Amino acid sequence: MIKPRRKVLFCDNAGRLIFDTDFHGPWTLTEQSLSAPERKTNIIDIPGRDGEMDIASALTSGEPRYKNRELELRFECSEGSKEQRTALIFDMTSRINGRYCQVILPDHPLQFLAGYMELQPDYNDPSHSSVIIRSSVAPYFTAINSTKFDLEAAATMESVIIRNGGGKKVVPAVSAYATAPDMPNITMRCGSFTTTITDYATHFYDELAMRYDEAKAIRYMGSGHLVITWREAYL
What we know:
Largest sheet: 7 strands, mixed, barrel
Order of helices and strands: EEEEEHEHEEEEEEEEEEEEE
Helix content: under 10%
Number of helices: 2
Distance between the termini: 19 Å
CATH topology of the largest domain: Elongation Factor Tu (Ef-tu), domain 3
Oligomer: single chain
Number of domains: 2
């Protein structure tokens, strides 16, 4: 078990638990554990073929898929009376149990884990209390902030390099905007792929998909702003 000495914020209205050095509540995060990523497999034996085949990888063009990871967090509190801490445990249970939450751990302040939380009281004696929060979370730490390019198009072709620094394949969201009452009219190219965006909708193009540390050269021209965003994820 890792034992960071950090304080904890309560679960806010957005369903997010944030562990921070600032004191925003009486509960201290004293232990945390997170299971290692485990790749999903579906092994079958095909007659007449050497070895066995993992059809899970075959269905994703070799891109690995992972099982959920098991998260366990222990919080302790020695403030107030036993009755006051009992009330705090009741409040935490109401806020957390069965809810889908984003969890930001002390050693990953820029990413979150996400899953359904279950809180279990551990003990509550006259001087000290402890609770345990468990969750089967999605395998990736997801960046809190999106990577974003806001590019102003012109009459001549411009270019930009975008790169996925995360460990999970991403397909960027592409949109455009212009100063009212004008509408955007932007031609975008990536390799042999070409499209023209003349609306405010959000588009996803498989041709822009990026694996880990993969880069794409984007060329664009026209009138308005071209916006490209994605959220990176890390194991």
